[in-house]
Amino acid sequence: MSKLSTKHLLGIKNITRDDIDLIFKTADNFKEVINRPIKKVPSLRDITIANIFFENSTRTKLSFELAEKRLSADVINFSAGSSSVKKGETLIDTVNNILAMKVDMVVMRHPNPGAHVFLSKHVKCAIVNAGDGAHEHPTQALLDAFSLRERLGDLTGKKILIVGDILHSRVALSNIFCLQKLGAEVRVCGPATLIPKHIESLGVKVMPNFKEALVWCDVANMLRIQLERQDIQYFPTLREYSMQYGLSNDLLESIDKKEIIIMHPGPINRGVEITSDIADGQHSIILNQVENGVAVRMAVLYLLAGQTNTIS
User: Fold this and answer.
1) Domains defined for the chain, CATH in brackets
2) How far is it, in rounded angstroms, from Cα 95 to Cα 83?
């Protein structure tokens, strides 16, 4: 297989295992490219990509922009905060005005779940979901799985624990879909108020006891508390949350088992969901995730652009 089964990346739910394998194979090639002295290739030199962010972003926006420039694409950055969206312009009008400038692809983050699916039915260009509300964040899940594949090899049968604010996390849902398609077993842990009511319908078991969950898992993916998405208080205090679900060196050392790989999609709230000695420690692959994000996003953009030339 040399082409994706879809013209957009709207979510992990919308792609196949073969698509994931192809993205990873392509990302392997691009990771080799970005570790060369000259890190650019001309793969997308005739493509113009618009990054349209209706929510604030640091890592994802920078990662996409760097991936686009590594591929030699022309890049337009659009921020809703300083645009005509503030004057009442609709999403479709905003994007169509950008496309009228002969843009070939849109990378978009939007606060409303499903905004990318809606847009894909009304515009004629490839769309990449860079996060839609608390729904999905497909490239984050892909780079997470790619990073685990580098460390563990085949993920079939591996035990992955996702800890924290599952209810408001688009990373959690995309990770569940992606890891399950790769054959891993996924469980979640966190306060009952931050676990979606019907999550077990996705084939995911809830483990309320954090220490028992750590004993079970091969990998712990630590998520931050998404206070910006919470309109009520879901737990008494951050200190109590950290005592119950925070990952520390003392807790890890109290577990007599194999080593656990530690992940975090960022931004890290040090001292809340994870301590600095763990985030910066030998078990952490957090910086590997950041590095791999560029290679995986290069692969996604390259494949969606439908380029026929080889990577050089």
Assistant:
1) 12-136+292-305 (3.40.50.1370), 138-290 (3.40.50.1370)
2) 12
